[in-house]
Batch of 4 targets.
Target 1
Amino acid sequence: MKLHRAVRFIAFGLLLLVIPAVLSTPSAAQIGIGIGISVHIGPPALPVYEQPLCPGAGNLWTPGYWAWSDDGGYYWVPGTWVVAPVGMLWTPGYWGWNNGFYAWNAGYWGPHIGFYGGINYGFGYGGVGFFGGEWRGGAFFYNTAVMHVDTVHITNVYVNRTVIVNNESHVAFNGGEGGVAVHATAQEETYAREPHTPPVAAQVQQEHAASQNRALFASENHGAPAVAATARPGEFSGHGVVAAKAAGAPYHAPAMSPKEARASGPAENHAAAPSGAKAVDRPFVPPAKSNSSNGDRMENNNRPSEENRSANEAHPAEHPQNESKMQNAPTSKPTKAPKKSPPKEEEKRDK
């Protein structure tokens, strides 16, 4: 009896370990919020849309973005209002170009807004910082100059029109040809070192729901999704849904399939945004002194040379200076072989 109970206890423990792993395993549509993704083709321009009305106090706006699916390519994750962790602000994720790849840099919650590629997501996210509101104690105050808030039901408001960014660019990636040429500031580097919180469950739900909706794929909506923003996460129909007014730029279908465009293996690990942030599910500190995207490319290209140096030290015969000796070695052995005397001496003894 005791043995059977022990077996059942062990089986139950293994089940508890397996269930979370299965639930967290991404489907064919990779969940871009928490998984580093690199592809050969850049995302479409950000669609033009209006912000739905804030559903209630304590909700913070999380901008829409293009996520990636290995089956269907880019798909739009509608912007939405999310009940935020108290005192935290949302730093959006962004796509960054380097060495021919576009790498996804995941967003996060933190006490300050970090670097998000200089992408103008709108609604307070003009490319640098966030000016849609601020925490005052345990309450969030909304800047109604850039936030769509019902001031009758939400009284924690103020107006600051000086922060409005009249930037008509809808580019959705940093670096590379046609990308946003912005680098992280020293202050953003400091913010990147602060403790961060991953996306809340509602944000993961929003992206998962978007990945299951074929109408949200760029191949279907050509950059202008019918569901560009939602009042609440996961609600893709009803009065709180806002459709895109237009695509941010003319949509051009990629020449390669999603599977061909997807980077994998070592190439994906080396792909990083010009800010220095790598394609992983946590923020990295971006360099502020770099004057061009070539700086990071040079840094990445130096890594193989360091590996080669260590390999040459471990195997001196493989060093280029020893290459000529290695080439001459096979020809020298046959010439020495006929000069060996032992066989001849044995023949004389036989005679």
Target 2
Amino acid sequence: MTAPIRPALPRVAASRGRRPTNISLWRHVTSQEWDDWRWQVRNAIHSVDELEQVVRLTPDEREGIRLTGRDFAMAIPPYYAALMDPSDPSCPVRIQAIPRTCEADGLGMHDSLGEDAQRVAPGLIHRYPDRALLLVTNMCQLYCRHCTRKRLTGERKHALSSAEFEQALTYLRAHPEVRDVLVSGGDPLTLGDGRLKQYLSELRAIPSIEILRIGTRAPVSLPQRVTPALVKMLRQYHPLWINTHFNHPKELTAEARRACAMIVDAGIPLGNQTVLLRGVNSSPRIMLELVRALVRERVRPHYVYQCDLEEGLAHFRTSIDTAIEIAEALRGWTSSLAVPTVVVDAPGGGGKIPVAPSYVLSQGEDRVLLRNFEGKIIAYPQPAERDATCAYDAKWTAQSASFTAPRKQQRLRVVGSPANKRAGRSVP
């Protein structure tokens, strides 16, 4: 038996994120301007000349900016640019924000998630039975180099018009099975409070919509956007949930933590969706530090996504085994509150598929062999079969059978996890 995974736990220092005074590009910027999210958006970095005043670009980065600029422009808010290590190209913030030549290799799929085929109205994607995705804008504060919607973002700036939004509303009113709507983009928090309020109020007026969600990276890339006025407006639309997108502990600056606290203090549950990125967070140590730091800030780690198959993302992708090993390094070694679900968003619109270590080694009629997080083998007795002798048992058995029968599968053979494979364990 191999030794269980015991991740090293040195603390990854979070950046402070304060206004830089040693960068000539922003030397004369006041604190009031720096803390204004609209100033940050207006002064986002788009060119090599601007970026070279912040970091020492490598030839690969300089060429990457040139090669990708026509298809997926670069935009980095000053706040996020100030988090980049000026001399280290392997800085995890820098990798997410600055193009490299490998991004232009053309490898990957166009619309890998099949969203265009599942579009039922302008901006509205209906993939799952009881929920829908509403893309209200194609604009972002930061154009992440690992973006799965890079075919849409960075194009001509566009937010849903009133007429387009009305078409989406018409569909939702006609489909009461949709009880949950995720407002995303682009990033919906690039819009002003008034436009966002219009979208939320119209959605909330549909009786069949029970839950509203917002997907945004603003707490990470532009925490100045989270203002008292914004959260005061958002709290009118409960039950409202927000998911954000921290990928590395370095992004949890004082400003980011303050933005998260404002959201949570307004009674809005805040979750996090991380994308597994080679060279950014593809190690158990980094991911463990990230999820622990998020929980300290009352942010619930929700998903870890395997990086999608979109064009230009091949250099970010890791193996499924890496994803499973990271999941194995979290389960049991930290609170279950901090353990996200690792998923593959299947190509062509197949939806999110969880991938996880296998802790079931084998099953028989009388017992199940299990492996715990430390690698110990435990025999767990199966319950004895018996007839349904009371009305409750009979009713429950019938309901359970009707619900699970279509999905029942043979379970005598279990696919081994990386830990099982390393230990040479076979499953009969």
Target 3
Amino acid sequence: MNLVHMPPPDQSDGRSALGIGHDRQPVAASACYMRMDSSMQTNRVGILGGSGFVGRHIAGRLAHQGVECRILTRHPHRHRDLMLIPGSEVRQVNVFAPRALQQALKGCDAVINLVGILNQSAKGGFRRAHVELVDVLVDACREAEIRRLLHMSALNADESKGSSEYLRSKGEGENRAHTRGQASIHVTSFRPSVIFGPGDSFFNRFADLLPLAQGVFPLACPNSRFAPVYVGDVADAFARSLDDPDSFARRYELCGPRAFSLRELVAYTAEHLELSTRILGLSDGLSRMQARVLGLLPGKPFTMDNYLSLQTDSVCRENGLRTLGIEPTDIEAVVPLYLGQRSLRQRYFTLRKPA
């Protein structure tokens, strides 16, 4: 069973998914931003989606920088641990409600939007989360007199040519953030490949599934390619861009230093779990069949839209981490640490059973 929920990144052939290169924003606009905001300093940031995997790392990174974070969520009681981050506040709000969002953002100097879903839901699905929310957020920023917005997109996001509805909606939302905000809000967007780190939903998801495979793991789209990017590097990219006028109106692709096939990444996971599992790569027809079947199950572990996203390789054409002065972290530096802990726990429980 294959659970690939990751939004893929960009083409490796040198073309931006939206046809917009990192250096193509109008020179006059860039110069104008520099004149207007060369002394910009952010003291408080509102974060939508801040209770998730990436949001927690960004909040921690900004706290280290001395920036206060106001994390907006429907269910603050579920995320009390976030209040342990110095200078952080968890506030209850429905981010889709315009007036409530505007009130919640008052007093913030900037906003970070990390909201995204990987599968359709009953409440409006991709369009509501990726497009309509952006419209609400840009309007709320204007009303709250916030002039800085950092937006999380996805590699290969393309409003017209994205291979899946997920990628098309992500592309449309990213475009709207830039075009609707350009008159009064300085927008920067980030387009990561699959993000890894302790608590991720990629390596950890496969680590949950592989022990259930009984020696053979059927894998859809085994040749799809990724350049996994470390969550700490993603958080650093957001933090470095926050007060940097050079980042205004730019779209940064974020990737790790190496690209791998999905088969290689799953095999790597099995190796570090010390599992002798054969990875059975499925043909295109069987991959489609698996998506149709698993898409009917509760939680939709793998859907046709996920399958379509995997048809585009998740590899950067130009790594924005290096543009921002960040050396990308390799999976070898991080993944063995948390997968190794899982392997030790598995061995412990295996030894306990006979006892």
Target 4
Amino acid sequence: MDRCNAGSSGNAGRSRPVYVILTSKPGQFRTEIVDGLRPLAAYDYLFYGTKKATFVIAELLEDTKIRVIDEAWSPQVVNEVPSKFLEKFETPERAFSELQHLTSFGHMDTKLRKL
């Protein structure tokens, strides 16, 4: 199974770490790294050579609220999304595998470029 059921009790009750995927889309919204997250890898998503998004795979160290800034509004709107709503993965490799699955569309020219 690629995903794990981490529940909402935080890492204090977990015997193993869990990993999440954070997304930012230029001009639309950006997700910020906050206390309780440890970024491991970042990737630009390219669609026919044009950057469409940036993804960060991060270890969830504890339940937290992820800061998402909506850049489409002036002034910018800040939302704090509880980490319990994020999909969680057992390993960084499984998170990356899911990211590859989410960003590939048949024979379209899509790439994940490691930062």
